[in-house]
Amino acid sequence: MSTLRIGTTLSVRFRPRALIVGLACTALALGVGILALGSGDYPLGPADVVRTLTGGGTPAEDFIVNQLRLPRVVTALLVGAALGLAGALFQSLVRNPLGSPDVLGFTQGASAGALIVVITGGSSAALAGGAVLGGLVSGAAIYALAWKGGVHGSRLVLIGIGSSAILTGVNGYLLTRTQLMDAARAVLWLTGSLDGRGWRDAVPLLVALAVLGPAVLLGCGRALRVIEMGDDAASGLGVRVERVRLALLGCAVLLAALAAAAAGPVSFVALTAPQLARRLTRAPGPNLLAAMCTGAALLVTADYAAQRVLPGHQLPVGVVTGVLGGGHLVWLLATERRAGRI
Q1: What is the CB neighbour count within 10 angstroms for residue 160?
Q2: pLDDT bracket for residue 118 (50, 70, 90)
Q3: Which whole-number Å values give the CA distances from 220 to 19, 214, 239, in the listed order?
Q4: Where are the transmembrane segments (predicted)?
């Protein structure tokens, strides 16, 4: 561990390898983002994209890069970062690599909220609000059901998986209650897609990450590492376990709900990014910053592949993350079984 001191009042401890991994993932995410900005029916080279981003392009290049393509790339980066951070928080709090919002039922709750808005004929803005509200309500309900003098990680996982199954059935029923055109729009949203995303989708997530990111990384990082040692050990070291757990769960649920509101319930990024970050950094603990950067790199890369893997056709990004994440989940379950943990 190394220590960075700012003045005489603030000091931050960090692992150099984790910092290098975070910087490498950030560079990868930005590099793929530049490639995505330059690809399409009006192709541009990386140098032209950078020149346009810095204000030196022609009016046509400025319109294509800054107004048509940049909002989608920025939304992909923010959604990936939010899902990576939310997944790292969930997995650390429940001390289980399967603990992610799409496994525990929080994204299904966001989907239920969005589907209710679709049934009632709400607008796209109301759909995003319904997703956030549904995610928060399901998070509160799962936390309340898991409470028994405290929230144990295994109990939260089991209740979350059960709630996920129930909400999946509810969402299937809600789909049958919608009109045909609304059902098609809802199915596309449920798959997870970044097509047509604009600044109105990115700004709420940017504000949430700007506020919650530093608060979690700097304010609760140490307490989260102590909680991973066990509730009794954390209490013995002076950490108010339930208060910290409730605050961090609230942050994770809000980030997952806002990510679902921006791009739909994109699957497996929150599950995969923290595990990949842990292996790259080779460090125990939550690896929050590395998980954020890894999530951003994963999603922007998956979206670029979704646009280019089939010439002439674009896939929803959720299809790519589902295929890759499903394979990772099978590998993770096999690894856990060989280790005797399941």
Answers
A1: 27
A2: confident
A3: 18, 9, 10
A4: 18-37, 73-94, 114-144, 156-175, 202-225, 246-268, 288-306, 315-334
